[in-house]
Write a structure and sequence with these properties.
By secondary structure, the chain is an alpha/beta fold. The strands form 2 sheets. Strands 2-1-3-6-7 form a 5-stranded parallel sheet, sandwiched between helices. A two-stranded antiparallel sheet has the order 4-5. A hairpin with a 2-residue loop joins strand 4 and strand 5. The radius of gyration is 13 Å and the shape is globular.
Length: about 120
């Protein structure tokens, strides 16, 4: 079986590269993007199983990426990351746009891996 593909979209180079490295070591194939435009392009090209995206990017928001990716495919598992507290309205907006999960930075990489595997197993991937 081919490795499951994960796309990490974050403008923080260190976090993005660290996340991809850890997930690679756990058997996932990882792609990276530093902004919304390259992230959306990469998602359309590579069709990852999971997209992990920062909510605040210099050229767009995670909410806009979520909406764009959902128009393209219902298959992606979308995980939104944030470094700040989100209001109930913001979380509701993200879920309404198609987000599957939220993570607040900093987060435990082991917990992230478990969440990813649980979401994948529920989708039958």
């Amino acid at each position: 079986m081919a490795a499951q593909k994960i796309l990490v979209i974050d403008d923080d180079n260190h976090l993005r590269e660290s996340l991809a490295e850890v997930l690679d070591l756990q058997g996932f194939t990882c792609y990276q993007a530093a902004n919304a435009k390259s992230g959306i392009d990469s998602a359309k090209k590579h069709k990852p199983d999971v997209v992990i995206m920062d909510i605040q990017l210099p050229d767009s928001s995670g909410f806009q990426i979520c909406q764009e990716l959902r128009r393209f495919s219902k298959e992606f598992i979308l995980i939104m990351m944030t470094g700040r507290f989100l209001s109930a309205e913001e979380k509701t907006q993200g879920f309404a746009l198609g987000a599957d999960e939220y993570l607040t930075k900093p987060f435990d990489l082991g917990e992230l891996s478990i969440r990813i595997r649980q979401l994948l197993s529920r989708k039958g991937k």
